[in-house]
């Protein structure tokens, strides 16, 4: 009997196939969520808006960016960030 193959990046979990365009979230127990409703972290928000995490922290403390908290963790909805960025962009 062969031993199961262990993945080097995730030694205790078997990799589950998901569509390439799907977004999963640990908040929703890895269920696939709609792209606009996807919850993202400060790091992901800073990458998305192309600003530093320090800038994200300032915007959160000044309440100029849409966010919410889950316990002590700050999270953003990607769709709300897109809408906010469009409304607040200078052309």
From TrEMBL:
<protein>
    <submittedName>
        <fullName>Helix-turn-helix domain-containing protein</fullName>
    </submittedName>
</protein>
<dbReference type="Pfam" id="PF12728">
    <property type="entry name" value="HTH_17"/>
</dbReference>
<feature type="domain" description="Helix-turn-helix">
    <location>
        <begin position="40"/>
        <end position="88"/>
    </location>
</feature>
<dbReference type="InterPro" id="IPR041657">
    <property type="entry name" value="HTH_17"/>
</dbReference>
<dbReference type="InterPro" id="IPR009061">
    <property type="entry name" value="DNA-bd_dom_put_sf"/>
</dbReference>
<dbReference type="InterPro" id="IPR010093">
    <property type="entry name" value="SinI_DNA-bd"/>
</dbReference>
<dbReference type="GO" id="GO:0003677">
    <property type="term" value="F:DNA binding"/>
</dbReference>
